[in-house]
Amino acid sequence: MAVNVNAWDEKQLKEIRVFLEDPSGTRRKINEVFTGIEEDPKHQNFFAPLLPNNAVTGGVHTLIIEAEDMQKNITVKSLRVHILADKLSELDFNTAFASTGWFEWSNNYETAMNILFFNEAIYSILNQNNWDYSIDTTLVNEFGLDFGGHSQLWKKWDTNKNDHLEYSELEKGMQDLKFFEDWDKNKDNVLSEQELAEGVGKLWDVNKDNVVTPDEYERKLLKYFLP
């Protein structure tokens, strides 16, 4: 979890200050991390991780942002943030999955995901190199093992053997895995967040006791849904 602030001024900004107020009302300043982003006099960017670097505890917190210009005019904005737990492992699986926010931003904040958005979302998981859109062979094979124990998935998906995974090959591969079909329990041709979480959870419930424990989900959730 992190805070990222962009501020603009018509003439020139002096600085951005960010504070975090905990549930007891205690306020402390958050130290900025240098991002390497080049700034101009009218624009400044502020970035700092909140979790785990700043040891934020659970509960309702308030982020307070102050932007000051060279004339000492100060604009203040605040945002309430509800932190469910200190650690991901303290949450049950469905809550942990929902807390990633992955479903919302992968689906344009709609309440249900159709197969087109589903395949595109899976493609985005596997395409972690946004510069040239190359997909790593090892990651595809690891994805296969982590999502149902499918070995050598790359070999099965790269049907034209050009060492590049086309989107059409991913679509065909996902169709063969039948994730969307199996997880769409009410057969309305879309997936709700609950259906998606239950489908993923069923694959990650290694001992098949109908409970997805942190030792079963934490590594995979961080790897695929919180990259």
> In what order do the strands lie side by side in the largest sheet?
3-2-5-6
Mean pLDDT: 86
CATH topology of the largest domain: Recoverin, domain 1
The CATH class assignment of the largest domain is Mainly Alpha
- Provide the CATH architecture of the largest domain: Orthogonal Bundle
Percent helix range = 25-40%
Shape: globular
Number of helices: 9
Strand content: 15-25%
Q: Name the helix and strand elements from N-terminus to C-terminus, one letter apiece.
A: EEEEEEHHEHHHHHEHH
How is the biggest beta sheet arranged? Answer: 4 strands, antiparallel
Structural class: alpha+beta
How many strands appear in the DSSP assignment?
A: 8
Report how far apart the termini are.
Answer: 12 Å
Organism: Pontibacter fetidus
InterPro entries: EF-hand-dom_pair (IPR011992), EF_Hand_1_Ca_BS (IPR018247)
Protein name: EF-hand domain-containing protein
Task: Write a structural description.
The protein is α+β, with helices and mostly antiparallel strands and 227 residues long. The protein has two domains: 2-83, Sandwich (Immunoglobulin-like); 88-225, Recoverin, domain 1, CATH 1.10.238. The protein has nine helices and eight strands. It has helices at residues 93-99, 102-106, 115-126, 137-146, 153-157, 167-177, 179-183, 193-204, 214-225; strands at residues 2-8, 13-21, 27-29, 43-49, 59-69, 74-83, 112-113, 191-192. Strands 3-2-5-6 form a four-stranded antiparallel β-sheet, with no helix packed on it. A two-stranded antiparallel ribbon has the order 1-4. β2 and β3 (27-29) form a beta hairpin. The longest helix is centred in the middle third of the chain and has 12 residues, at 115-126. It starts with a strand and ends with a helix. It comes from Pontibacter fetidus. This is EF-hand domain-containing protein. InterPro entries: EF-hand-dom_pair, EF_Hand_1_Ca_BS.
